Amino acid sequence: MTTPPVVRGTVPDADVVLAPLPDLLPGLRETYEDLHRHPELSYQETRTAALVAERLAAAGYVVHSGVGGTGVAGVLGNGVGPCVLLRADMDALPVTEDTGLPYASTVRTTTADGIESGVMHACGHDVHVTALLGAADVLARGRSAWSGTLVVVFQPAEELGTGAQAMVDDGLYDLVPRPDIVLGQHVAPVAAGLLGLHAGPAFAGADVLDIRLVGRGGHGSRPEATVDPVVMAASTVLKLQTIVSREVAAGDAAVVTVGRLQAGTKDNIIPDEASLGVNVRSFGEAVRSRVLGAIERIVHAEAAAAGAPEPPRITPGESFPPLVNDPAETERTRAALAARFGAERVIDPGAVSGSEDVSVLATAAGVPLVYWLLGGWDPAAFFAAEQAGTTDRDIPSNHSPRFAPVPHPTLETGVTALVVATLDRLEAPDGA
Amino acid sequence: MTTPPVVRGTVPDADVVLAPLPDLLPGLRETYEDLHRHPELSYQETRTAALVAERLAAAGYVVHSGVGGTGVAGVLGNGVGPCVLLRADMDALPVTEDTGLPYASTVRTTTADGIESGVMHACGHDVHVTALLGAADVLARGRSAWSGTLVVVFQPAEELGTGAQAMVDDGLYDLVPRPDIVLGQHVAPVAAGLLGLHAGPAFAGADVLDIRLVGRGGHGSRPEATVDPVVMAASTVLKLQTIVSREVAAGDAAVVTVGRLQAGTKDNIIPDEASLGVNVRSFGEAVRSRVLGAIERIVHAEAAAAGAPEPPRITPGESFPPLVNDPAETERTRAALAARFGAERVIDPGAVSGSEDVSVLATAAGVPLVYWLLGGWDPAAFFAAEQAGTTDRDIPSNHSPRFAPVPHPTLETGVTALVVATLDRLEAPDGA
Amino acid sequence: MTTPPVVRGTVPDADVVLAPLPDLLPGLRETYEDLHRHPELSYQETRTAALVAERLAAAGYVVHSGVGGTGVAGVLGNGVGPCVLLRADMDALPVTEDTGLPYASTVRTTTADGIESGVMHACGHDVHVTALLGAADVLARGRSAWSGTLVVVFQPAEELGTGAQAMVDDGLYDLVPRPDIVLGQHVAPVAAGLLGLHAGPAFAGADVLDIRLVGRGGHGSRPEATVDPVVMAASTVLKLQTIVSREVAAGDAAVVTVGRLQAGTKDNIIPDEASLGVNVRSFGEAVRSRVLGAIERIVHAEAAAAGAPEPPRITPGESFPPLVNDPAETERTRAALAARFGAERVIDPGAVSGSEDVSVLATAAGVPLVYWLLGGWDPAAFFAAEQAGTTDRDIPSNHSPRFAPVPHPTLETGVTALVVATLDRLEAPDGA
Amino acid sequence: MTTPPVVRGTVPDADVVLAPLPDLLPGLRETYEDLHRHPELSYQETRTAALVAERLAAAGYVVHSGVGGTGVAGVLGNGVGPCVLLRADMDALPVTEDTGLPYASTVRTTTADGIESGVMHACGHDVHVTALLGAADVLARGRSAWSGTLVVVFQPAEELGTGAQAMVDDGLYDLVPRPDIVLGQHVAPVAAGLLGLHAGPAFAGADVLDIRLVGRGGHGSRPEATVDPVVMAASTVLKLQTIVSREVAAGDAAVVTVGRLQAGTKDNIIPDEASLGVNVRSFGEAVRSRVLGAIERIVHAEAAAAGAPEPPRITPGESFPPLVNDPAETERTRAALAARFGAERVIDPGAVSGSEDVSVLATAAGVPLVYWLLGGWDPAAFFAAEQAGTTDRDIPSNHSPRFAPVPHPTLETGVTALVVATLDRLEAPDGA
């Protein structure tokens, strides 16, 4: 999956391309706050997509909308040279915002499981969209400084792990040129101003399971006439903890999270069923298989222990492969970023347990991927928490109702990182 | 609370009063199916109340509507003599019906906790309303056969344990005469045609608790940065099982049910909170205190075990006292019913773990209560299950999505029991 | 099982028989302290049996030793009249005494499961032996006051539930006359001076299960290479709590106790197996069957959940039937005791969850049983705790390391109760 | 901790030193079987120590016995040159052997906690002792081939993590020369013939906790009068699973094992206390602190949840630091071993979760450590299991009752590895 060694031409001058950025930042910040205020769930990103399409068209890109549902792709052909694909994801999450920000979301939804919830950009995809719009803009404005082709992809439904595949299945690579490399970034609870690159397996694979535990409902005062699915669910959740604690070696890694547990409507009615949403992270097939096998074994045994009238129903949902950064290309991008930002601002965060479907775009094209973390946290607060050993407690993680990247210097850093990494792949125009 | 011994006059002739019942039964069955098709949650029983008010007025009762919200009371003064209060409850439950009946409910609701659910008469209050309408009708038609005053009360919100008190607080006993006795019945998973009376404590007291367990949300792949309320809730539910298993003596009785457990919206988001609806049954204050104390102790300790950032919030909800049937009056009613139905059809079911707020009407009036169970199950199926030892599995209990009393002979038995027990308290008119 | 109505002759004069008791009490107290200091486990009661045999022989009884292992039976024929069998049990328990008494036990043992423990009369069988020796003595001294036959049985291994059967199987009723009634008593955490009789089912049935959970051992640092039986056992114990909390109706009663849980020898070695000792109490066959079935279902499912390499091994141990006091005979004995002690000292404690194999002696003889509780607690402390609602906490129950009946007035009351209840069944001699 | 770069002289000729090994192997195998048959627990290794001392003396070593209790050190001064310390540990474990080997142990013990158990070399220290005796022997026989000083240390009580420190505290480095490097090996479930070296942190740190959960005992039929420590212990064990599953990041590693859980003596006695032996593995202080803190938090909260009359008692036991192999010296030894065995037989197993106190000997001397894994498993069986993905199930791990290294080629490989790694550090004699 590595590219052949190339005879490198002159790298385009990033200073020229980035010159207008300071004047554009206030507008980007407005865009960011607007997106944050209007989060849209997976495959419902119509407002976001319309905004993206309009901005790309205005910047001179050929725009393809409705790719894979609500996805948008823009192409800027600019002479001979390599083709670079930059990707951002657009969807938000069913989380009720609790940031206290003036531009906090008040959007509400009812999930497919009938749960009422707020909707929130709790994973920073609004940062991703804004930074890529900024990068697309300055790269278009500065097109005299580089030669090649730029493809920008705004993907739906990353949170479901299906959006990238949906765009590919819908003919993305018939609409846009096949790139030489795929680049992208994800905002993370790291000090703003920092970038994090890890070569090799960098993000975990993820599997989603929907589990229905079937009991037999009845009156809350007569449990003996029921099979109580609430107790069955509770015991199942506790037993699932033993997978990571007892069945995964210290040298391996996995995460098993029950993020959703729903049973019953009223205290004095024992319901018929309980429903669990389970998320599994792993970095390799052996551990993945063992964990998925253990979940199935435990869930069935818990139903048997409870005397359930029917076996549980386990429905596999999304499945993300691990994200693997091409080692050689990652080192090349690290060097380019370090040259711009200083080596101390380009850290190696190790493999993270988050998952991403961006690798689908690279794999489908048969090209390497380089994907990095973009620090989003107020550095003073972040380093103070790190010093005090309270990072986990004080720095809200992605998906938290309090997830709130600071726009400055996050947006500026995000745009600059995309531009620098892209120009490193493009060519200076003849005579530049 | 017992009434003084009375010199009994002649008991009115029930045969006379019940003569029109066979002709009325088809209409009562239509009413029953109509009510079953249109269940209404607590304090939303407007359609039911309107139907009740119209029928009572047509039968000649003075009608008071809107008592305690949606309650209806009717009064039929009919000469000198005692006053008997008959009570039915009107509300349905947030249960999604699964009976397959042609007149099954398709009504839907979203609960205050944001859970979508069907609405269903899963506790048979439609039977209670229909039977009391039938009894009110024949007693009015046959008023020449008795002397005294009849009060019929159709109560809202029994399921919340607050409807009877709401009617009393709203001035019920300023609107209707204070009765000499309160009578009523509850349909139960017992063979239709049977009646069940138990003297003394007959229904359990109930307490409802809403419990919010506060964790700290975040990304499903980074549990170490969260305090997982799903695991906290699961462990709490399991630990609550130890109250009945370890803290209540074999000679005492209590039930602790978590009928509602809700946490999270999506598999890969660890939520901030989990919510539990807990229902407690007990028959005496010592056990009740110990159980409620143990719940509080356990819930707080589970939060401490999890390292919760905030203590849990335990909000007491409804609280039903135990229902105590006046011993002497119960024996008197048992004798009257046995004389009509045969002694073998009037069983003693013992104390049941269900709860009822009907006793509030008696206590507020300072008079005795007699409340009985009305069998609602197909006798063939019921006795076969009893024979096979599968009653608990095959006979759906109250609050089950499959709770389905058979209209025949349940309605006929219910009307007859109310009429017979009432006439036993009234007087024959002079010269009768 | 009731005896035919009898034409009662004159009841022997208890005052005459009990006259020497005050002078004998200091010696009885010495005997009690000696027995307490020298507890012997089930079927090892050789020292106790030797002491009993010697005292009975000295009092004029025909003595049969070694009946059913270590059991002793004494017979005193004294003319025409009924035959009464009085029973005491002799065995102690593997409990490490923590009473602080000057005559506390320091005896040690290693159980069959390899557990080191103290040995203690933690169930008061030393009281039973002493009181019966006292009663046998005064009844023999006062034999001129009564006519009939007395059989006194000192039984081994009540704690295993097999000692009474062992004596019967070893030919007890070939050695001693078949009695007309079996009487006995058990010291209990009730105020000393009180007696407790309950007609009908008075003590629970008990079943004992030995459960081996088979995992696969290994190094404590590599759980992934093992199947951890400690976690399997822990989960099983918690799941067993749901039987009583969810599968036994509020109106029924059962107890499921895991009194022994043993797994492993060292923190860093995951063992191959865990061993549980489970004790079940119930009052009827339906509940008993459901509970035993649930245990089997849960234990197998827990092994399946853990991925156990072998199914668990469940070995049934002792099984006690419920103890049923003959209703008519119980009322007769209650009257006799009330006449002696005053009615307020003869209470009805209801059914208790303890178990007893004394009923085997009555059933094998086809005669009725009357068995009562003998209060053993300092009345001041007991009533104060009852007043404060702290009985459960402050009054050590049987089997507690702090179980310590007060010798006075417990021994005196115990002897007197046995004598009075016995004389009530015997006849006054001709001319008395 | 790295040694300064050295001008290397000629390495001694290992072929010469190892020449007698084939003839010595049958005797070594006898020694191994003899040691295996006679395992001795920590600080009780008197028979082993006597055998070691006799063999070392016979081979010409100056022997120091009784160092740090039962430890033995031998010194062979052999001219100018570096000093190398080779270490083996001698103690066995309270595990009941289940290997079926003809030389299986039948030794029994009763632990300090009163548990009866077999005693077994379940961690292969018998291999370590045998291989080091073999290496000491051939190095002594071949002393003409090298120059320098050899120190061989046979350490007690590695399993307690205190034996190395005990020898240091008892003046080991006053008795023997301070070495330039410490070398050693541990047999592991890896194919025999293979060696495993990992530079940097190679073995986890370990902490041991003894936890006493205090309840209040009583009769098994009256749990309401007790605080059941068996249920408390079960819930604690399950809750401890959440530490690794929820509080340790996927990128970090920890193990929390409850290897010993003991409560109660008999099914119908609820005991006063339960006792847990907990073992914790971690690779860095941050994770270690969080895990130990979580254990304390959970254990106290579980006692609070149970309403325990006293707080639990947590007693810290052994604490091993992580074992860190000096990176440069490890690579040097890897090269030496690869030159002898072929590179494909010297694998990098990564960090393992086992713990070792050998580093105490290096740290106390202020010199580097190189410690490797010695494969002990039948290669055919091992590779077949690896192929089938059943390694965890089919290859017994250390501390398993079925832990059984194959003597051939394990002993030969072990002796050779020690000799080669040692000679690599010594000098060839002048003129060699």
TrEMBL record, chains A, B, C, D:
Its EC number is 3.5.1.32. Keywords: Hydrolase, Manganese, Metal-binding. The Mn(2+) ion enhances activity. It comes from the Bacteria. One of its GO terms (molecular function) is metal ion binding. Residues 210-303 form the Peptidase M20 dimerisation domain. Its cofactor is Mn(2+). NCBIfam families: amidohydrolases (TIGR01891). This is Hippurate hydrolase. It comes from Promicromonospora sukumoe.
